[in-house]
Amino acid sequence: METKKFNLKNDIIFKAFFARKGNEEFLIDFLNALLGIKILKIEIKEEVNLEKFVQI
Protein backbone atom coordinates (compact mmCIF):
# COMPACT_ATOMS: atom_id res chain seq x y z
CA MET A 1 0.00 0.00 0.00
CA GLU A 2 1.39 3.36 -1.03
CA THR A 3 1.65 6.06 1.63
CA LYS A 4 1.01 9.61 0.50
CA LYS A 5 2.72 12.51 2.21
CA PHE A 6 1.07 15.90 2.29
CA ASN A 7 2.77 19.25 2.70
CA LEU A 8 1.15 21.78 5.07
CA LYS A 9 2.06 24.54 2.59
CA ASN A 10 -0.75 23.25 0.38
CA ASP A 11 -3.85 25.37 1.07
CA ILE A 12 -6.26 22.44 1.28
CA ILE A 13 -4.00 20.49 3.63
CA PHE A 14 -3.46 23.62 5.73
CA LYS A 15 -7.21 24.20 6.05
CA ALA A 16 -7.93 20.55 6.77
CA PHE A 17 -5.35 20.45 9.57
CA PHE A 18 -6.15 23.74 11.28
CA ALA A 19 -9.93 23.58 10.77
CA ARG A 20 -10.36 20.11 12.26
CA LYS A 21 -12.09 19.80 15.61
CA GLY A 22 -9.52 18.57 18.09
CA ASN A 23 -6.76 20.69 16.55
CA GLU A 24 -7.86 23.95 18.16
CA GLU A 25 -4.70 24.10 20.27
CA PHE A 26 -2.52 24.01 17.14
CA LEU A 27 -4.61 26.75 15.52
CA ILE A 28 -4.40 28.93 18.63
CA ASP A 29 -0.61 28.48 18.81
CA PHE A 30 -0.26 29.30 15.11
CA LEU A 31 -2.44 32.42 15.32
CA ASN A 32 -0.74 33.64 18.50
CA ALA A 33 2.68 33.36 16.82
CA LEU A 34 1.51 34.86 13.53
CA LEU A 35 -0.52 37.76 14.92
CA GLY A 36 1.50 38.46 18.05
CA ILE A 37 -1.61 38.56 20.23
CA LYS A 38 -2.86 36.22 22.93
CA ILE A 39 -5.82 34.09 21.83
CA LEU A 40 -7.11 31.90 24.64
CA LYS A 41 -10.06 30.13 23.05
CA ILE A 42 -11.29 29.47 19.55
CA GLU A 43 -14.31 27.66 18.14
CA ILE A 44 -14.21 25.82 14.84
CA LYS A 45 -17.65 26.21 13.35
CA GLU A 46 -17.16 24.33 10.09
CA GLU A 47 -14.60 21.62 9.50
CA VAL A 48 -12.84 21.19 6.18
CA ASN A 49 -13.17 17.61 5.05
CA LEU A 50 -9.95 16.65 3.30
CA GLU A 51 -11.49 13.56 1.77
CA LYS A 52 -13.81 15.77 -0.31
CA PHE A 53 -10.85 17.40 -2.06
CA VAL A 54 -8.26 14.65 -2.34
CA GLN A 55 -8.72 11.06 -3.38
CA ILE A 56 -6.72 8.99 -0.92
Describe the structure.
The protein has helices spanning 11-18, 24-35, 50-53. By secondary structure, it is mostly helical. The chain contains three helices and no strands. It is elongated, with a radius of gyration of 13 Å.
pLDDT under 50 segments (min length 5)? Answer: none
Q: Report on the biggest sheet.
A: none
Question: What series of H and E elements makes up the topology?
Answer: HHH
**Radius of gyration, in angstroms, nearest whole number:** 13 Å
- The number of helical runs is 3
**Euclidean distance between termini CA atoms:** 11 Å
Structural class: mainly alpha
Summarize the model shown.
This protein has 56 residues and is mostly helical. The protein has helices spanning 11-18, 24-35, 50-53.
Topology:
Layout: H1 11-18, H2 24-35, H3 50-53
Give a quick set of tags describing it.
56 residues; mainly alpha; 43% helix
